[in-house]
Amino acid sequence: MLDVLIIGAGLSGIGAARHLQKLCPDKRWRIWEARAAIGGTWDIFRYPGVRSDSDMHTLGYAFKPWHGTQAMADGPSILQYIREAAEETGVLQQIDFEHRVISADWSTAQACWRVTAQLADRSTHTQETRFLYMCGGYYSYAQGHHPHFDGQDNFKGVLVHPQFWPQALSYADKRVVVIGSGATAVTIVPAMANDAAHVTMLQRSPSYVVTRPAQDTLGVWLDRFLPFDLGYRFVRWRNILQGMVYFQLARRKPLFFKQYLISMVKKALGRDYDVATHFTPHYAPWDQRVCAVPDGDLFKQIRQGKASVETGQIARFETNGILLQDGRFLPADIVVVATGLQLNVLADVAIHVDGKPFLAGDALAYKGMMLSGLPNVFVAFGYTNASWTLKADLTASYVCRLFKYMDKRGYRFVSPQHDPAQTTQAFLDFTSGYVQRASAMLPKQGAASPWRVHQNYVMDVLALRFGGFEDGVLRFN
After folding, report:
1. Can you give the residue range of the structural domain that contains 115?
2. Report field, pTM of the whole predicted structure over 0.90
3. 56-67 per-residue burial string, b: 16 or more CB within 10 A, e: under 16
4. Are 69 and 127 members of one domain?
């Protein structure tokens, strides 16, 4: 019997294990990872230019300062950072690889979970644990969102999805069309443009794209004169507060903030570029995620003629390119379908509570980290307007505090319970397509704390680091 079984050995899972090591050294825990390697997102995605669109002072762990000079680090550097975090304290030895969890069954009588994983040889392994800690992320590793386009089977070139990038793919001197306008597309386009004959970003509608410095000059300067941890924490908090100010400004003064973002694009591309068509979204800032490009690399490639943007609807694929509904034709040797992720909930694990199926879509999220009616389960879920790790770190420290509270009082399990009359709303206040497609399966949130999912780090610090547990919502047994 384990005390805690962590599902997933990515950024969240390794962080959760490190917190348990330090704060709850008496707990017995292991990590089950579906794949044969750690790193999650940062090991899966191998497309050209893969990087974070969050700064590493906030995407990095609170307990492990980022030593790189890149503010927006590339994927291999982030993967190495996660590996170091797993290796330096022995977490790596506590990971069972190729353990894809397929079911979890809770027994109130026994106060434990019975978790079953499928192994690489198709056999199964079952483990009993008091607590489940879900750190498997929010999207399917098995498939991305890939809409079907008329005539795509007739295309004679290469059709590829970023989530499953073929490492042997050569795009030197090739004509490339990247379908999409989100974070993945604005990363791939400038990276491929270095070697391709030309890269076109084809979008149905524009996204907000902002330039951010590739290197944090203040952070580099502070590292020269201050003890490293002190400089790291100063820049970390500066970036947190700056991000919160920008987000609140965008929400409270959306027209002003929109004009501010668009003005930066105009400055980057020049007065003759059609910014109104290609870089002026029809929605307000942060209704969808704002895309960041380091040192304006996307804009530089557009100015140099190595890349371009086309806005329009696809009519059909031809053998050698894509025909748009307005008659324009985009020749292509390679088409990259950067059309987004396919969200999932609780890592697609079939969950039963005392024999009854548990449906996340019927539950409310408690403090963004537990679900109503689901005993002894914690979920690592990050922010949409800030770095994922900020909330994952807070969740892990809260879980450890809760363990100590329960041990002191002899409690065996805990479950948040909501009033059925509670007013509910969407879990994510986002209009992005990948969120809307998954809205029915996502849990809901309430109108007020603790059921309100705050996209605000300072509010969560107060609630998760210092808030009490006897709030009338958490039920202990």
Report:
1. 2-142+342-476
2. yes
3. bbbbbbbebbbe
4. yes
